[in-house]
Amino acid sequence: MIVPTKKDHQSIAADLLNRAFDPEEATKILTEKVIQRPLFLCPTSPPPADARRARQLAAKRAKEQRRTKSLKPKPLSATQRKKQGLYKIPKEGQKYKLFEPLHNLWLGYIREILGNEVYTGGEAAAAKLASADFHGAGVEVVRSGCVSRVGIKGIVVKDGKFAFEIVTTKNKVKVVPKEGTIFRIEVPVPMITKTTETSEDKESEREEKKESKMVFELHGDQFQFRSADRATRKFRAHFSKTL
Amino acid sequence: MLSFQQPAFYQSSKCFVTHGVMGHVDPKQPPSKGKPWTTFAGQDFVYSADLILPEEVFKAVQAKLLEDEAIPEYKRVVMSLHDILSGDFFSNYIKAGSILMLSEGRRGIDNVFALRNGYLTMFLDKESYERAGLVGKPHGVKGNRGLKSRWFVEIDLNSSSMIKGKKGYDRLIYASKNAFSEPMTWLFCNVVSTVPDPDPLAAFSPTTCTSNPSITRDIGALVPSLTPPTGTAEHTARDELEDFSSEVYEWLSLVRLQSPRILANDQIDPYLSLYRVPEGSKPARVCKISWRGFLSPSWTRQAMIDLITALPSKTWFSFSTTIFTKGLAGDNTECTFLRPPNSSGEYLMWEVKSHE
């Protein structure tokens, strides 16, 4: 067996180069391009010279990003929300008397925010009412472009952006769009009138409690905002084409 | 603020002339089919009726038409719509009787309510219609998408669904309580002669008005030849009828207006009036009887039947009825009937129809 000695040993590269080039050139290429070849530690650190390489890199980066983004949860679409039925009132829950305590709560809330303006009404009362919340209010549709809506009376169960959901005394939930409709709301207000009575012995003051109502009408056309958005909204008077 | 004006459009009244032959009139079976009778029955609320006769036959008519039973009477009452639609009034007069009622106002400006043959028709403006909640149709000028500002609602009160407890009736009552709650002045006419025993109308203290006929006798007028032209060539027949009918209609209208131009001794300066009675007019004496008030079409039909049976068949007479105006312009809608002399059953009828 012949073992190649060190002297005789030539690398494969040198051997191949000697076959193609003359000996001087072969050694030159060997030293420059093989033995002294620089090995880049970070191959892409100087940016790629040609456009094709740049485009390839950009496409790869975009693909990475899309993959990470699709892992984030997206909000539901309207159809999906409806399918979930979060805001649907179940059949057992569509009872008028279930919402009466809510209505009383709402009356107390309105009396509290209006304070003394329940008796006087006017601009200040209107401004406060415009930003009030109407869940649980007792409304009646008084005037509407769609005549079948007139006369619907009940308690507001949902105050959406474009419609009211009202539960009527006959235990039906009706969706009434706000557009082109005027709603009337009545707030019963206890009025205390003092009457003086003189008798022979003493003067006594008797307080009579009378029930009177504050009635106001709401123009649905101007009210098409969610109740959360209404709180900070400044309402300006707009001329209505339909009135 | 720019207000969008309603486009106004005016169409003049049209006059339709009919020349025909009536069948025999039997007073026991009042005719209801055929041209002169259907026109009279088609009028809704008659305001005035005029009758022009030759003076000689006045006595024949006097007994029949001027007796107490034939004098129409009507009542003026202040009620709200709710009173009409509920209680004894509704069950006695509307469900079981036949009445005519008309509320005060002009269609096109105010809210007008009319009750006829059991049909309640309401002419409303936009706000009242939207507050009432009853289904109706747009009324008035067509076009202007979305800006329909007047509506009319028609409801059949005689139908079986108009009872308390049914949805349609309840919606009507709701509307009468909320949208039309003020009392209005109405004209009331009972078409049939029977009055229900405790009269529901008495509770509203109506004022009774009788339309006594006003008689103008012995007018010495120039009466043209009232016989329609016959036996002419076909191509001129139409023109001749047109000329004849317009001349005779003009003459009849002047007699109704009691204009002095038709009098035999009238001498007016042609600068002031160019009217001349038609050629071939002879002096004769005529008389005119007119009734004003809230008359029903069945009264006019009965009057026509009485006239045809009471008068000798050779004489001429003219009977015309005018109804309450419907439109804003106050145009006339009327029907004039003429029976020419020496004809049996022949008649000439002018129907003036105003636009809405």
From TrEMBL, chain A:
GO BP annotations listed: rRNA processing; tRNA 5'-leader removal
GO cellular component: nucleus; ribonuclease MRP complex; ribonuclease P complex
Chain positions covered by the region annotation Disordered: 58-84
Keyword terms of this UniProt record: Nucleus, tRNA processing
Domain of life per record: Eukaryota
Subcellular localization, as worded in the UniProt entry: Nucleus
InterPro entries xref list: RNase_P/MRP_Rpp29-subunit, RNase_P/MRP_Rpp29_sf, Rof/RNase_P-like, Rpp29/RNP1
GO molecular function annotation: ribonuclease P RNA binding
The keyword tRNA processing appears for this protein: yes
Membrane recorded as keyword: no
Family: Belongs to the eukaryotic/archaeal RNase P protein component 1 family.
Full protein name: Ribonuclease P protein subunit
Species assigned in the record: Apiosordaria backusii
Origin organism lineage: Eukaryota, Fungi, Dikarya, Ascomycota, Pezizomycotina
TrEMBL record, chain B:
GO cellular component terms attached to this protein's record: multimeric ribonuclease P complex; ribonuclease MRP complex
An example molecular function term from Gene Ontology annotations: ribonuclease MRP activity
Any one GO BP annotation for this protein: tRNA 5'-leader removal
InterPro entries membership: RNase_P_Rpp40
Xref: PANTHER family: RIBONUCLEASE P PROTEIN SUBUNIT P40
Protein name according to UniProt: Ribonuclease P 40kDa subunit-domain-containing protein
Species name: Apiosordaria backusii
